[in-house]
Amino acid sequence: QMPTQMPTQMPTQMPMQMPMQMPTQMPSASGFNLSMQTTPAASAYAMGGSGPFPSQILPSLPTKAQTVKGADGPGLCLVNKGDKHQLRFKYASEMRGGHVVPALFGGVHEGMGLGRQYEEERIFGEWRYTESSLGDGLAISLQLERGEFLKVTDSDLVLDVAFWKMDVGTAVNFVGGAGERTYLKDGANGRSWVINNDGTISPKNYSSLVLGAGMPISATDLKGCWSCCCFPCGSAVMSISPENEDTYTECGVFFLFFYIPIPYGKKRRRSGRNEFVNVQDGNDKSAFVNKDKFYFPPGMLGCGGKC
């Protein structure tokens, strides 16, 4: 006898198997190792249900804490298009279509994703910011808004070129302001982006530059004369003399209240990706945007550059 009633429910999902880990490696600078692996955490985005995009790759958003990568690895920066450290975003075409997608990378950076150095937002003047960090595992999610802004979906922050300095090596972080100030468009348009057909992402008005993995700045690249302003305390001129890739001495004159000269000298050692701390005062730090510009974290009350 044949059954008279068909089953009322068909299975909607086929069993899936986790991919095997396939470690690869690319050269890095200053002892930092860019290790690319297809980890279970990174692969989790591809394990969603059988529904239409984007649920296939983004069944749920990770928490902020899950996207913290720390400061030991590379951060996001500007590189020349075609550079070996340029980043190709795995879901660039879906991002261009306005979907919320995980900021995972393809190509030689397969298995890595874009995250944050720390969970909190810090303050500089009117701006809130969190510094970027790359690494294995879960990534932040991005969405293209207003056709040009790349918004972090778990925060009111967008991708921003540090100080809008459109040069190779300049850091790219997450920045936001009050209301519409987050979507600022002036001058260099340091928050406006174009998603290219090859998966790279360029500043809107600078197609020769793309987002890339920011390798640590070597102290040997900082050699020379520098000046800075620390409002309202004063200003300074100094000379940096590297000892090795991670240590340098700094000798100069600080002008208290921009008038009274006070000679000084100190030794700094790397304490983060591009951050150097006074070996005798852990609160005295200098962080370099690139090899020509620096600021004083965490409040960034002063900044300077090469003379």
Q: Could you explain the architecture of this structure?
A:
By secondary structure, the chain is an all-beta fold. It is 3% helix and 40% strand. It has 2 helices and 23 strands. The protein has helices at 40-43, 92-96; strands at residues 24-26, 34-36, 75-80, 101-102, 112-116, 122-124, 127-130, 132-136, 141-145, 149-152, 157-161, 172-176, 193-195, 201-203, 209-214, 224-230, 234-244, 247-256, 260-270, 275-278, 281-290, 293-295, 302-306. The strands form 6 sheets. An 8-stranded antiparallel β-barrel has the order 16-17-18-19-20-21-22-23. β13 (193-195) and β14 (201-203) form a beta hairpin. It is globular, with a radius of gyration of 23 Å. The N and C termini lie far apart (93 Å).
Oligomeric status: single chain
Strands in their spatial order, largest beta sheet: 16-17-18-19-20-21-22-23
- Give the helix level as a range of percent: under 10%
DSSP strand (E) fraction? 35-45%
Envelope shape: globular
Largest sheet: 8 strands, antiparallel, barrel
Order of helices and strands: EEHEHEEEEEEEEEEEEEEEEEEEE
Q: What's the count of strands?
A: 23
Unreliable parts:
1-53
If you average the pLDDT, what whole number results? Answer: 81
Q: Gap between N and C termini, in Å?
A: 93 Å
* Cα radius of gyration in angstroms: 23 Å
The count of helical stretches stands at: 2
**Helix/strand-derived class?**
mainly beta
